[in-house]
Amino acid sequence: MEFPQWVQDRVIARQGCLHPYDELPAARTAVVVIDMQQYFTLPGYQGECAPAREIIAPINRLCGAVRDAGGVVVWVQTASDNADVFWSHHHGVMLTPERSARRLETLRRDAPGFELHPDLRARSTDLHVVKRYYSAMAPGSSELEPLLRGLGVDTLLIAGTVTNVCCESTARDAMMRDFRTIMVDDALAAVTPAEHENALHGWMLFFGDVLSVDEAAARLKPAQAPRKTA
């Protein structure tokens, strides 16, 4: 992603360089793929983000590179079970009754909308996490943070959809939990290009790095004992 000069100037003034991570030790790195579910990727669903279908191939490539280097792949999926109770403000105020009912019905764990897009190359050795809120790192949302800590992971590559909602929310919380956090530009999608770009401008200015799939893969330092894949 090519950042405007004013963004580059402010980032360099703050941290001394545009991209702070020359190497990404694969043994301590996870790619966290957010919400690439049928509810968010397929036509006809209320949560459809059509551009998310265009990032399936880049996500598969990124996950393959991380696996091959000995890193971790985590698939994060949103579930709506009981969300009208534990997230009553969102469902009762921020959604119309019709939209609330559709979300509750089509994003349950046992609904087709919960499933990952069929073209994603998830492996049996990958990890799966279910979240309740936009951010997988928010208190009570998921087990993502303790899972990563237990694996010795301190570096995250964030991919998925939607860039400026669940992906950015998870990434910001991860950064503030002291993870080195990188948004992977061409493995992220928002409803409009403007939303995607504006989110990454704000992210770059204050929170972490932005790299492409190729740039992230080139920085991976293979683990001494690569993790086996199925």
What helical percentage do the residues reach?
25-40%
Give me the count of strands: 8
Distance between the termini: 33 Å
* Shape designation: globular
Average pLDDT works out at 96
By CATH's scheme, which homologous superfamily of one domain applies? Isochorismatase-like
Largest sheet: 6 strands, parallel
CATH topology of one domain: Rossmann fold
Walk across the major sheet and give the strand order. 4-3-2-5-6-7
Radius of gyration: 17 Å
Task: Please name the CATH architecture of one domain.
Answer: 3-Layer(aba) Sandwich
Low-confidence stretches: none
User: How many H/I helical runs?
Assistant: 10
CATH class of one domain: Alpha Beta
Describe the structure.
39% of the residues lie in helices and 18% in strands. The chain has 230 residues and is α/β, with parallel strands linked by helices. The chain has a domain at 24-78 and 117-221: 3-Layer(aba) Sandwich (Rossmann fold), CATH 3.40.50.850. The strands form two sheets. The protein has a six-stranded parallel sheet, sandwiched between helices. Helix 8 (163-176) links the parallel strand 5 (155-161) and strand 6. Helix 1 packs parallel to helix 9, helix 3 (56-69) runs parallel beside helix 10 and helix 8 runs parallel beside helix 9 (193-206). It is globular, with a radius of gyration of 17 Å.
Secondary-structure blueprint of this entry?
Blueprint: H1 5-15, E1 24-25, E2 29-34, H2 38-41, H3 56-69, E3 72-78, H4 83-86, H5 88-92, H6 97-106, E4 127-131, H7 144-150, E5 155-161, H8 163-176, E6 180-189, H9 193-206, E7 209-211, H10 213-219, E8 220-221
Parallel strand pairs: 1-8, 2-3, 2-5, 3-4, 5-6, 6-7
